[in-house]
Write a structure and sequence with these properties.
Length: 252
């Protein structure tokens, strides 16, 4: 590395495929929704930013939706974050964040637009060919935001969505996971080889095996409260297509 020029170092840094770990690179095949369901620190944001950036490089006409829980989340994490769009841009790429209107303008003409799950109606009308949805599990108005986004995802020949999130047992999470055309990438915090060893050791020692650790570190979707008498699996096992005729009614 010491013998490399500044330009050569920058070129090496920009070779994302060289640095990406398993789970951060787009899957092959015919898919409409790519869900990265993983623990904190897995590299979800970096994967999302690199995915969007490559789309913009390949298609100067690309119109991309950036959807976060809040506009501040879009700005701080997806655009200006340590692993956001600005950070992963190559040195020779002119990328401009127009905060007043919530737009990212790429030098070749591609554009990305910021949206908040607090204002789902803002997605009613605009059309996109691509979308990056971050932390879907914490969206305040999840269903209308998702519905308006998907109804406007109609530009190009193969519109696609990337969802990056640490899971929570919310209705929208289960709904999206059941959609046709979805491919899922699972991942844990410790799967990222670029994290500080001290951090991984500390959070593992503190949270490994706990309910919080299973969700936040292992990316596990935990449906039931610990010790619950009525679990989701039990309820689902007793589900019937039609309610039987009642033979006796007791009011207590």
């Amino acid at each position: 590395m010491r013998k490399l020029s500044v330009g050569q170092r920058n070129e090496l840094r920009d070779r994302w495929r060289h640095w990406a770990h398993d789970g951060q690179y787009p899957p092959e095949g015919d898919w409409r929704i790519w869900l990265i369901r993983a623990g904190r620190g897995f590299g979800k944001t970096r994967a999302g930013a690199e995915w969007v950036s490559q789309i913009a490089r390949d298609d100067p006409t690309a119109r991309i939706a950036l959807v976060g829980a809040t506009i501040d989340d879009v700005r701080r994490v997806m655009v200006q974050g340590e692993s956001g769009l600005i950070a992963v841009a190559h040195d020779n790429e002119a990328l401009t964040w127009r905060s007043a209107v919530g737009e990212v303008h790429f030098g070749n003409g591609a554009k990305a637009y910021a949206y908040s799950a607090e204002a789902p109606e803002a997605l009613r009308g605009p059309e996109h060919g691509w979308a990056w949805c971050d932390e879907l599990a914490k969206w305040r108005y999840g269903d209308p935001t998702w519905d308006n986004l998907m109804m406007g995802l109609r530009l190009g020949t193969v519109p696609r969505v990337l969802v990056t999130t640490t899971p929570r047992p919310v209705a929208l999470m289960r709904r999206v996971m059941a959609l046709p055309g979805l491919v899922e990438t699972r991942g844990r915090t410790r799967d990222n080889p670029h994290l500080p060893v001290s951090f991984v050791e500390a959070v593992t020692a503190t949270y490994a095996g706990t309910r919080l650790g299973r969700q936040e570190l292992d990316g596990e979707l935990i449906e039931d409260i610990a010790g619950a008498l009525w679990t989701r699996a039990l309820v689902e096992s007793r589900r019937v297509a039609f309610a039987p005729e009642l033979t006796r009614v007791v009011v207590g």
